[in-house]
Amino acid sequence: MALQCPKETPFSRRHATAVSLRLGCLTLMLLAFGTPTQADVECAAEPPVVENIQYTEAWRTDADSEEYLLGNIQAAVMDDAGALYFLDVQQQEVTRFSAAGEFLGTVARQGEGPGEINQVWSIGWWPPESIVLPQAFPAKVVRVSPEGIPQDELRILLEPDAESAASVTEFVACGDYAVVGGSTFMFSGGESSRNQWLGVAGRDGVLRYKLGERRTTMSSNPLNQIFNEFESFWSWERWAVSPSGRVFVAPERDEYVIAVYDLDGNLEEKWTRPIEARKRTADELEDMRDSRTFVFNGQKAKIDFTLSDYQPPIQSLHHFGDELWVRLDQGPDSEAYARVAVHSPDGALIAERLLHVPYDEKNDVVLMLDRKHVVVIENGVGAQAAQFSTAINEEVDEELDAEPIEVVLYRRD
Fold first, then answer.
1. Edge-to-edge strands of the sheet including 130-135?
2. Cα 388 from Cα 390, distance rounded (Å)
3. Residues 156, 200 contacting (CB under 8 angstroms)
4. d(CA 357, CA 105)
5. 221: burial class by Cβ within 10 Å (0-12, 13-18, 19+)?
6. Cα dist. 217→120, 136, 221 in Å?
7. What are the tens digits of pLDDT across the range 8-41?
8. Beta bridge partners of 200
9. Distance between CA atoms of 255 and 145, rounded to whole angstroms?
10. Cα-Cα-Cα-Cα dihedral sign, residues 223, 226, 229, 234
11. What is the number of helices (H) and of strands (E) in the chain?
């Protein structure tokens, strides 16, 4: 473990000679009595072990069920009892299934009344008894019990004197607090901008601390967009949080760096590995252009791309149990669903794990729930395409839209 010393002192260089004696004395005092320091954990490029994790099917939903109809499932969450909740963003409904796969009912439906939702794209679980549903507009966080009983709504205010609540898109609970994030769009003097933010809120919705924030100027013509991968990168966009309230973020695009913060925004330590960014293939660059689409008033916008030739080594962060899972770039030819680096609470690299999940890369959507469970939405790509194509008044690809979705729960062996 290497100790990181501060690069600067509170003293300017022109005072260095005058205070050198006092600094020397202070140094001796700190060595004698000790002082808090930031500890950096340096991990080796090669993991101590590589584990192959196999997932097997536990149960699946019934595409022909008369009890429920599933549309475009894009998010899922599991509560402490093992029950699962699936968010259908097309129908704006949340369905509940037991740990054994029994349908338990619909706990949230589209509407404007208590416990009802509209324009919800993510779902969370806030122990001991709250399903959390951040709504884009009007901006609020809807909460219901596992049985669907409406609970008090949250309205997140970015500033104490703010006149309106912020639109929340990400919500991960940790004890009596939650790390929440979102973005707001502003229009002034013919110019539009986007404000991204990430903060810590309590159960009352009051923002305790703002971890990160940035504003970017948007194209003045919605049908002529610009995507610059270098400028679009934000140091707070890949993050995870532990139940104890440690916030993990990957602040560097092309390096393996994990910064660890407390809920007050204090940097505790950094974990690093000497892993370089991989050069992308021509097909990968083309796929990136094809996969990014912007729709305005039912029309596809033209997008001018500036892309990096290199793939970031870190794709995303996830915290399961007492482990931080760092999803790694594994290249285009891997046979596994994902490759993850697993860190212990003290930052030590435990292993790298290859997650083998039965799924069709072209047609299925995969959601990691925890370190033991994965959900696969079979034909989920087709469901997304159908909803998107309807929004822009285009015909749906028959091959993708031919089969209804089935949601499958897999458990690791």
1. 124-126, 130-135, 140-144
2. 5
3. no
4. 28
5. exposed
6. 25, 21, 12
7. 333 333 333 333 333 343 333 333 334 334 679 9
8. 179, 209
9. 41
10. negative
11. 5, 31
